[in-house]
Amino acid sequence: MKLSVLALGLAAGLALAAPARAQATRDPAQIQAGTYVVDPGHTQALFTVNHFGFSPYTGIFSDISGTLELQPAKPAESRLKITVPIKSLYTPSQHMLDSLKSDKFLDVAQFPEMTFTSTKVVPEGKDKAKVTGDLTLHGVTKPVTLEVTLVGAGANPMNKKATVGFEAKGTLKRSEFGVKAFVPAVSDEVQLTLHGAFERKD
């Protein structure tokens, strides 16, 4: 009996200490319009290439910054700008990481950032859109289209800030940006993915 009471008390204490679960929505009518900024602790950019025809190989960027001018009622008027520091790249292989950051590939010393600035937003249903923009990588700027899906929006249970999250996917040919090493053994086509969380500015 004493153990049961103790267990109940412990469970109640843990419940009080734990943050409330986020009540996320995918209904644009419930999302606040305004200027949102990237939550860098919960935003990631990934690339994937085919490595010698044997396996996909993925690298991940962090410390991302940027802004989202979000207009849920008029999504075509929304605007996105993202900056990705190349030095933040991580892969499980230090040798591969050093090679990717060298002038053989991304040349982080000369080109420290990758940026994406939207130029056109085309809604596709209430929670999807095609976002076309200028991608600058390795000193070259070219248009890229991202397939964007709303993941959810609502108040962050930790800091109470209005938060919205998206997943964006697209492809590019790295040779068009001057990154040509080992093409085609390492695929020219690069798959891009952005897992983005944005917090509304007060």
Describe this structure in words.
By secondary structure, this protein is mainly beta. It has one domain: Beta Barrel (Lipocalin). Helices cover 12% and strands 47% of the residues. It contains 2 helices and 10 strands. It has helices at 2-17, 94-101; strands at residues 34-38, 44-51, 55-61, 65-70, 79-85, 113-123, 128-137, 140-155, 162-173, 189-200. It has an 8-stranded antiparallel barrel with strand order 1-4-5-6-7-8-9-10. It starts with a helix and ends with a strand. Residues 5-10 and 14-18 have low confidence and may be disordered. This is Polyisoprenoid-binding protein. Keywords: Signal. Residues 35-199 form the Lipid/polyisoprenoid-binding YceI-like domain. It comes from Methylobacterium nonmethylotrophicum. Residues 1-17 form the signal peptide.
| Major β-sheet profile | 8 strands, antiparallel, barrel
CATH class: Mainly Beta
* Uncertain regions spanning at least 5 consecutive residues: 5-10, 14-18
Task: Look at the helices and sheets and give the structural class.
Answer: mainly beta
CATH architecture level-2 label: Beta Barrel
Rounded Rg: 20 Å
